[in-house]
Design a protein that fits this description.
With about 260 residues, the chain is α+β, with helices and mostly antiparallel strands. It folds into three domains: about 5-95, no CATH class; about 105-185; about 215-260, no CATH class. The protein has nine helices and eleven strands. It has helices at about 5-20, 25-35, 70-90, 95-100, 195-200, 205-210, 215-220, 230-240, 245-260; strands spanning about 40-45, 50-55, 60-65, 115-120, 120-125, 130-135, 140-145, 150-155, 165-170, 170-175, 180-185. The longest helix is centred in the N-terminal third of the chain and has 20 residues, at about 70-90.
Length: about 260
Protein backbone atom coordinates (compact mmCIF):
# COMPACT_ATOMS: atom_id res chain seq x y z
CA UNK A 1 0.00 0.00 0.00
CA UNK A 2 1.11 3.60 -0.55
CA UNK A 3 2.88 5.19 2.43
CA UNK A 4 4.32 8.62 3.22
CA UNK A 5 7.66 7.20 4.42
CA UNK A 6 11.06 7.02 2.80
CA UNK A 7 12.45 3.72 1.60
CA UNK A 8 14.64 3.41 4.71
CA UNK A 9 11.66 4.02 7.00
CA UNK A 10 9.62 1.49 5.09
CA UNK A 11 12.37 -1.11 5.52
CA UNK A 12 12.48 -0.39 9.25
CA UNK A 13 8.71 -0.79 9.47
CA UNK A 14 8.95 -4.06 7.55
CA UNK A 15 11.66 -5.35 9.88
CA UNK A 16 9.55 -4.62 12.97
CA UNK A 17 6.51 -6.20 11.33
CA UNK A 18 8.52 -9.32 10.52
CA UNK A 19 9.59 -9.71 14.14
CA UNK A 20 5.92 -10.04 15.07
CA UNK A 21 5.01 -12.35 12.20
CA UNK A 22 3.45 -9.79 9.85
CA UNK A 23 4.23 -8.67 6.33
CA UNK A 24 5.67 -5.27 5.50
CA UNK A 25 2.29 -4.26 4.07
CA UNK A 26 0.56 -5.03 7.38
CA UNK A 27 3.26 -3.10 9.22
CA UNK A 28 2.78 -0.09 6.96
CA UNK A 29 -1.00 -0.25 7.54
CA UNK A 30 -0.41 -0.06 11.29
CA UNK A 31 2.22 2.68 10.91
CA UNK A 32 -0.16 4.81 8.82
CA UNK A 33 -2.84 4.44 11.50
CA UNK A 34 -0.35 5.34 14.23
CA UNK A 35 0.80 8.43 12.36
CA UNK A 36 -2.81 9.56 11.97
CA UNK A 37 -3.30 9.10 15.72
CA UNK A 38 -0.19 11.01 16.70
CA UNK A 39 1.52 7.83 17.91
CA UNK A 40 -0.91 7.51 20.83
CA UNK A 41 -3.81 5.83 19.09
CA UNK A 42 -4.48 3.85 15.91
CA UNK A 43 -7.55 2.74 14.03
CA UNK A 44 -6.43 0.20 11.47
CA UNK A 45 -7.80 -2.27 8.99
CA UNK A 46 -5.83 -5.14 7.44
CA UNK A 47 -6.57 -8.86 7.03
CA UNK A 48 -3.34 -9.88 8.80
CA UNK A 49 -4.24 -7.65 11.75
CA UNK A 50 -7.58 -9.34 12.33
CA UNK A 51 -9.58 -6.97 10.13
CA UNK A 52 -10.71 -3.66 11.60
CA UNK A 53 -9.27 -2.79 14.97
CA UNK A 54 -8.21 -0.09 17.39
CA UNK A 55 -5.20 0.37 19.64
CA UNK A 56 -4.45 3.10 22.16
CA UNK A 57 -1.42 3.84 24.28
CA UNK A 58 -1.87 2.40 27.73
CA UNK A 59 -3.19 -1.04 26.87
CA UNK A 60 -6.54 -0.84 25.06
CA UNK A 61 -6.71 -3.12 21.99
CA UNK A 62 -9.64 -4.43 19.96
CA UNK A 63 -9.47 -6.40 16.72
CA UNK A 64 -12.13 -7.85 14.47
CA UNK A 65 -10.99 -11.41 15.25
CA UNK A 66 -11.81 -10.76 18.89
CA UNK A 67 -11.41 -14.32 20.20
CA UNK A 68 -7.94 -14.85 18.72
CA UNK A 69 -5.79 -14.08 21.76
CA UNK A 70 -2.56 -15.06 20.02
CA UNK A 71 -3.20 -12.59 17.20
CA UNK A 72 -4.12 -9.91 19.73
CA UNK A 73 -0.77 -10.38 21.44
CA UNK A 74 1.13 -10.00 18.16
CA UNK A 75 -0.90 -6.96 17.04
CA UNK A 76 -0.30 -5.29 20.40
CA UNK A 77 3.42 -5.95 20.14
CA UNK A 78 3.53 -4.51 16.61
CA UNK A 79 1.65 -1.35 17.60
CA UNK A 80 3.69 -0.83 20.76
CA UNK A 81 7.04 -1.20 18.98
CA UNK A 82 6.09 0.95 15.98
CA UNK A 83 4.84 3.71 18.30
CA UNK A 84 8.09 3.52 20.27
CA UNK A 85 10.14 3.67 17.06
CA UNK A 86 8.29 6.80 15.98
CA UNK A 87 8.87 8.46 19.33
CA UNK A 88 12.61 7.78 19.49
CA UNK A 89 13.24 8.63 15.84
CA UNK A 90 14.04 5.17 14.47
CA UNK A 91 11.14 5.81 12.10
CA UNK A 92 10.63 9.35 10.87
CA UNK A 93 7.09 10.59 11.46
CA UNK A 94 5.54 11.75 8.18
CA UNK A 95 4.68 15.40 7.69
CA UNK A 96 1.13 16.36 8.60
CA UNK A 97 0.32 17.23 4.99
CA UNK A 98 1.55 13.80 3.85
CA UNK A 99 -0.32 11.98 6.58
CA UNK A 100 -3.59 13.85 6.42
CA UNK A 101 -3.78 15.07 2.85
CA UNK A 102 -7.07 16.80 2.12
CA UNK A 103 -9.13 14.80 4.64
CA UNK A 104 -9.42 17.59 7.23
CA UNK A 105 -13.06 18.13 8.21
CA UNK A 106 -12.61 19.92 11.56
CA UNK A 107 -12.02 23.69 12.05
CA UNK A 108 -8.54 24.67 10.91
CA UNK A 109 -7.72 26.56 14.10
CA UNK A 110 -7.78 23.31 16.08
CA UNK A 111 -4.64 22.13 14.27
CA UNK A 112 -3.68 18.46 14.06
CA UNK A 113 -5.48 15.95 16.30
CA UNK A 114 -3.65 13.53 18.55
CA UNK A 115 -6.05 10.83 17.38
CA UNK A 116 -8.97 10.49 15.03
CA UNK A 117 -11.20 7.81 13.61
CA UNK A 118 -14.77 6.79 12.97
CA UNK A 119 -17.31 4.65 14.75
CA UNK A 120 -21.04 4.00 14.40
CA UNK A 121 -21.38 6.40 11.46
CA UNK A 122 -19.57 9.24 13.25
CA UNK A 123 -16.07 10.67 12.85
CA UNK A 124 -14.07 12.15 15.69
CA UNK A 125 -10.81 14.04 16.17
CA UNK A 126 -9.18 14.69 19.56
CA UNK A 127 -7.20 17.86 20.39
CA UNK A 128 -5.91 17.39 23.96
CA UNK A 129 -3.72 20.52 24.00
CA UNK A 130 -6.80 22.65 23.30
CA UNK A 131 -9.13 20.46 25.38
CA UNK A 132 -11.40 20.02 22.40
CA UNK A 133 -13.12 17.11 20.68
CA UNK A 134 -14.57 17.43 17.17
CA UNK A 135 -17.41 15.16 16.04
CA UNK A 136 -18.81 14.87 12.51
CA UNK A 137 -22.10 13.17 11.77
CA UNK A 138 -24.25 13.49 8.66
CA UNK A 139 -22.26 16.49 7.47
CA UNK A 140 -22.59 18.44 10.72
CA UNK A 141 -19.56 19.15 12.91
CA UNK A 142 -19.83 19.78 16.65
CA UNK A 143 -17.02 20.88 18.96
CA UNK A 144 -16.99 19.68 22.57
CA UNK A 145 -15.04 20.80 25.64
CA UNK A 146 -13.14 17.84 27.12
CA UNK A 147 -12.34 19.67 30.36
CA UNK A 148 -9.96 17.66 32.56
CA UNK A 149 -10.29 14.54 30.40
CA UNK A 150 -7.11 13.97 28.40
CA UNK A 151 -8.62 11.70 25.77
CA UNK A 152 -6.54 9.08 23.94
CA UNK A 153 -9.17 7.68 21.58
CA UNK A 154 -12.62 6.17 21.26
CA UNK A 155 -13.67 3.07 23.16
CA UNK A 156 -14.41 0.15 20.88
CA UNK A 157 -18.16 -0.45 20.99
CA UNK A 158 -20.18 -3.37 19.79
CA UNK A 159 -23.74 -3.17 18.53
CA UNK A 160 -25.73 -0.17 17.36
CA UNK A 161 -25.15 2.21 20.28
CA UNK A 162 -24.66 5.60 18.64
CA UNK A 163 -23.34 7.35 21.76
CA UNK A 164 -19.56 7.46 21.46
CA UNK A 165 -17.37 6.84 24.49
CA UNK A 166 -13.71 7.79 24.85
CA UNK A 167 -10.74 6.56 26.87
CA UNK A 168 -8.59 9.05 28.74
CA UNK A 169 -6.40 9.60 31.77
CA UNK A 170 -9.51 9.74 33.98
CA UNK A 171 -11.06 6.61 32.50
CA UNK A 172 -13.96 6.32 30.10
CA UNK A 173 -16.22 9.29 29.33
CA UNK A 174 -19.32 9.43 27.13
CA UNK A 175 -19.70 12.01 24.39
CA UNK A 176 -23.02 13.03 25.94
CA UNK A 177 -21.12 14.09 29.09
CA UNK A 178 -18.87 16.55 27.21
CA UNK A 179 -20.52 19.96 26.74
CA UNK A 180 -21.05 21.10 23.17
CA UNK A 181 -19.60 24.58 22.61
CA UNK A 182 -19.99 25.08 18.88
CA UNK A 183 -21.94 23.64 15.97
CA UNK A 184 -21.64 24.11 12.24
CA UNK A 185 -24.63 24.16 9.85
CA UNK A 186 -25.53 20.90 8.17
CA UNK A 187 -23.31 20.79 5.11
CA UNK A 188 -26.08 19.08 3.13
CA UNK A 189 -28.62 21.84 3.69
CA UNK A 190 -28.89 24.76 1.31
CA UNK A 191 -28.84 28.26 2.82
CA UNK A 192 -32.34 29.37 3.76
CA UNK A 193 -34.01 32.49 5.09
CA UNK A 194 -33.07 33.60 8.56
CA UNK A 195 -35.15 32.52 11.53
CA UNK A 196 -36.41 36.05 11.99
CA UNK A 197 -37.68 36.17 8.45
CA UNK A 198 -39.19 32.71 8.64
CA UNK A 199 -40.91 33.41 11.95
CA UNK A 200 -42.79 36.49 10.77
CA UNK A 201 -46.05 35.74 8.89
CA UNK A 202 -46.39 37.34 5.51
CA UNK A 203 -49.34 37.67 3.19
CA UNK A 204 -49.50 38.05 -0.58
CA UNK A 205 -50.44 41.58 -1.70
CA UNK A 206 -53.99 40.49 -2.46
CA UNK A 207 -54.45 39.06 1.04
CA UNK A 208 -52.88 42.07 2.70
CA UNK A 209 -55.44 44.25 0.97
CA UNK A 210 -58.18 42.08 2.47
CA UNK A 211 -56.95 42.46 6.04
CA UNK A 212 -59.40 44.65 8.00
CA UNK A 213 -58.01 47.97 9.11
CA UNK A 214 -59.97 49.46 12.02
CA UNK A 215 -60.55 53.17 11.60
CA UNK A 216 -59.66 55.50 14.49
CA UNK A 217 -62.58 56.13 16.79
CA UNK A 218 -62.08 59.88 16.66
CA UNK A 219 -62.28 59.93 12.87
CA UNK A 220 -65.46 57.85 12.88
CA UNK A 221 -67.15 60.10 15.39
CA UNK A 222 -65.98 63.34 13.79
CA UNK A 223 -68.13 62.95 10.71
CA UNK A 224 -71.38 61.09 11.36
CA UNK A 225 -72.94 61.11 7.93
CA UNK A 226 -76.39 60.01 9.02
CA UNK A 227 -78.52 59.13 12.02
CA UNK A 228 -80.49 60.98 14.66
CA UNK A 229 -78.27 63.66 16.29
CA UNK A 230 -79.88 63.02 19.68
CA UNK A 231 -79.12 59.30 19.42
CA UNK A 232 -75.55 60.06 18.40
CA UNK A 233 -75.14 62.35 21.41
CA UNK A 234 -76.29 59.51 23.67
CA UNK A 235 -73.67 57.22 22.11
CA UNK A 236 -71.02 59.88 22.58
CA UNK A 237 -72.00 60.13 26.23
CA UNK A 238 -71.60 56.37 26.62
CA UNK A 239 -68.14 56.58 25.07
CA UNK A 240 -67.26 59.42 27.44
CA UNK A 241 -68.52 57.50 30.44
CA UNK A 242 -66.48 54.48 29.32
CA UNK A 243 -63.35 56.62 29.22
CA UNK A 244 -62.98 56.45 25.44
CA UNK A 245 -63.66 60.17 24.98
CA UNK A 246 -62.47 63.08 27.04
CA UNK A 247 -64.92 65.69 28.30
CA UNK A 248 -63.61 68.26 25.83
CA UNK A 249 -63.97 65.88 22.89
CA UNK A 250 -67.50 65.06 23.96
CA UNK A 251 -68.38 68.75 24.17
CA UNK A 252 -67.01 69.49 20.68
CA UNK A 253 -68.91 66.60 19.09
CA UNK A 254 -72.07 67.44 20.99
CA UNK A 255 -71.92 71.04 19.74
CA UNK A 256 -71.49 69.84 16.14
CA UNK A 257 -74.49 67.51 16.38
CA UNK A 258 -76.74 70.08 18.05
CA UNK A 259 -75.99 72.52 15.24
CA UNK A 260 -77.75 70.14 12.83
CA UNK A 261 -81.07 70.37 14.64
Amino acid sequence: MQSPWSEDDRKAIGAIAGQHGFSEDAGVAMAVALAAGGGAMAQFGHPELGGMGQWSQGGMLMIGDMFNDGLKHRVRGLADELASAMRDGRISAPKASESWGSSRWWPEELGQPSSSGSQNGQRYAVFPDKRRLAIERDGRVTIHDTGDHRIHGASQQQGSNSNLAFNGDLGSVNLSDLPEIRRSPDAREKPSASFETAAQPSFPPSEQAKQPRPAPAAATLSSPASGDPIELIRRLAELRDAGLLSESEFSVKKTELLSRL
